[in-house]
Amino acid sequence: MEFPTQSSPYLPLNKNLSRLMVQVMLGLIPGAMCLFWFFGWGILFNLLITSATALLAEAAMLQLRRRPVTATLCDGSALLTGLLLGLSLPPLAPWWIPVVGALFAIVVAKQLYGGLGYNPFNPAMVGFVVLIISFPLQMTLWPPPQGIEAETLGLADTLQLVFASVLPADTTLDSVTMATPLDVAKTRIGLNFTWSEILADPRYGSFAGRGWEWINVGFLLGGLWLWQRRAIHWQIPVSMLCSLFIMSLFFYVADADSFGSPIFHLFSGATMMGAFFIATDPVSAATTRRGRLYYGAGIGVLTYVIRTWGGYPEGIAFAVLLMNMAAPTIDYLTPPRVFGQKDAEKN
Amino acid sequence: MRRLMVTLLEQPKRIHGGLHLDANKTQSLQQPLRSASVPGQLYIPLSQHIGEAAEPLVEVGDKVLKGQLIARSPGYISAPVHASSSGKVVAIGDYPVPHPSGMHAACIVIATDGEDRPADTRLRMDDVFNADPADIRQRVRDAGIVGLGGAGFPASVKLNPGPDREVDLLVINAAECEPYISCDEALMCSRPQEILDGVRIMRHALNASQVVIGIEDNMPTALVQLQHCLDQTGASDIQLTPVPTIYPAGGEKQLIYALTGEEVPSQGLPIDLGIVCHNVGTAGAIARALTQGEPLISRVVTVTGEGVRQPANLEVRIGTPVADLIEECGGYTDDVARLLMGGPMMGFSLPNDSVPSIKTTNCILAASYRETPQVTAASPCIRCSDCADVCPVSLLPQQLYWYAHARNFDQIQDYNLFDCIECGCCAQVCPSHIPLVQYYRFAKTEIWAMESERQFSDMSRQRHEFRIERLEREKKALEERRAKARKALKPKVGDANAKQAEIAAALQRVKAKKAAQSVGPLNTSDLTEEQRAKIAEVDRRRSSANGQP
Prior knowledge:
The complex is a heterodimer of chains A (347) and B (549). With 347 residues, chain A is mainly α. In chain A, 60% of the residues lie in helices and 0% in strands. Chain A has helices spanning 17-39, 41-64, 69-73, 77-88, 96-110, 123-134, 155-164, 173-176, 181-190, 195-199, 212-228, 235-254, 262-266, 271-278, 289-309, 316-333. In chain A, helix 4 (77-88) packs parallel to helix 6 (123-134). The N and C termini of chain B lie far apart (101 Å). In chain B, strand 10 (210-216), helix 6 and strand 11 (239-243) form a beta-alpha-beta unit. Among the domains of chain B are: 122-294, NADH-ubiquinone oxidoreductase 51kDa subunit (Rossmann fold, 3-Layer(aba) Sandwich); 386-444, no CATH class. Chain B is 38% helix and 16% strand. Chain B is α/β, with parallel strands linked by helices and 549 residues long. In chain B, 48% of the residues are buried. The interface between A and B is large, with 43 and 72 residues.
């Protein structure tokens, strides 16, 4: 009797790329729901636009590169990039902002480098950084979070604003948007406000920015679930959060008037989403066990440095891209000690 | 002579990485171990071990007896081959052998006569525990015993630590970590005494101070049987240690680490730590050879999987075709999709069932597609490094893959490719379904090929250089010989006067020669007296003219 042959091992494989991507998407749900709750319909539009653009761009590029289109789209990586970018963009930004960001992320940062597995930089963060450098004004269009006494836009109004740049009557762009807590903190520290004065602002909630604190809790919960499902390794988030905590604690203890508290930093901006969903992108991160610790720590330190002394209120995206550059070197310098060898030094 | 001391751990260590796999051993352990019937024809390959192939000692038409030597080992790293049953040699030639490539190799084909008449093998030793270790090794060698764990390294070689080494610890590998395989477990359950005898013989041959049997903790029956046997004799010379069940705890280096906490050096051998490791089945085979005089003509084989009707462990004659074993177990089911020799992690798939089962065949797995699905197309590596987490050798499989893919064979060796034991854990957890082990085998083969090519060109160059050197040497020798011969022709000289005389004579000769040469070309030898006088006259005038200008 004849049989087909193949190479070992033969057992059924339990892991699967698209299942992994779907898990990460599921992990995003708590944080995304919080974002939606606090910032309204714009979040949903962003997600829809970035996902659709990312998928279309991926399909077009695969077609041009003569790669299998359907099978590759099914791996979910393009959709995930779109979702991550969509969650980082201001909800009231005009429709072409997410389009440009997703296009750049997929076409340039991912496919031109060779597609999934070959991109040295996190595509979603490349898309984000391109936008924040090129369109700084549009990237500030965050509405006031739910719970602050201010005008909020409904579904129809948001649709009109995003797709036709038409504001409801009796409103201005300034009256429907509000600077983010990190932005405000940065500006006011520059104006010699003390932290206690800053925190007295209604923008701030119980332990960080109003709304943002719960959004971060949401992403933290989703991230913990991912770790529990072994979809991500613990090293990068833990070392990133620890280094951010230590940096902020050090300066906070030294001068509590001029520097934000560790808790503020951990639960502000994109900290938790960055730690569990952005920095853990395996393609562009360090892969050795020790390397992942250094990589995460680097992101934490750079994030703090950019937030505190840099030109932008939020530093996660830049920190991730900078550490992406360092990842191959980190991997090269941190090989594990091979069984039966005296030390990890290379010959 | 150095003696290395090895300390056995109270609590076995967990190995690095590894996987918890479904054991799937119960299917084949439902029925007790039984002997498979002797097939009509035995296909006995001449190479069933690591090392040189054996050389046939029989010819077509010869009658052979069970246990008779039919092929001798030509070298130290080799093993002889015996007839597994009595009958007639009907062919010697190339037949399909168990190999991933489905290749054909030299086999002796015996048509059995059903009488199973044994030959006198003279392997039995009456007082084995007082015998000379060298004698034991010779008989183990004569019995054709090779490592039955899978690699098939000649056992006698591993019973010889060498003159400058001593063995402190003998490790008996009974971990059998790969799913589906249960032949060692079946053997331990049904013939524990035989195993302990074999272990003691090995210990005596090696003069090892400690012995431990490392057995996975998911084989309670085997553990109880062995312990019972030890208790009966009140012996405490052999330690039984259950090790945590995890794949690949049965790898030699992994098991030694689990039991002692010591790491066998990379590219090194257990003997570097004063340890020798043998498979539990090998111990059984040694006991059978030296106490019952039966060479290695049969072994226990697990026949299992959803593709076979009645999974079982069988005592199988070496050379029995796989098809006969499947028949023995009730035949194929409709689900059979794939035929594997060895386990699902490190075994290989057979293209057909006509190949014989050999000394290293521990398992025949007739698997369904549910058990061994078809490969799907691989996706790109996303560098998730799950593979690095499960690697028992702490390699970076993602980097090895990258460099194998890029055919960067220098860099891949910097990442310790040759420490890879091909256990398959990395490929098993890869979310992109990349056949990683295949890439590593490819890289290893390429490097070996390059290495042998380099050796060949080195040898050619060396040979060329040697030839030039030899030619020059010969030229020089010839000249020396000639000079010597010339010297020998000259007369021996006694004193200074004689020397002077000789020199004078030589000068004379030279002068005469010169003179002869100077006049030679003038061609004046045949001149008359008159002509000569005239010439002399002219010469005189000339010289006087030259003298007074």
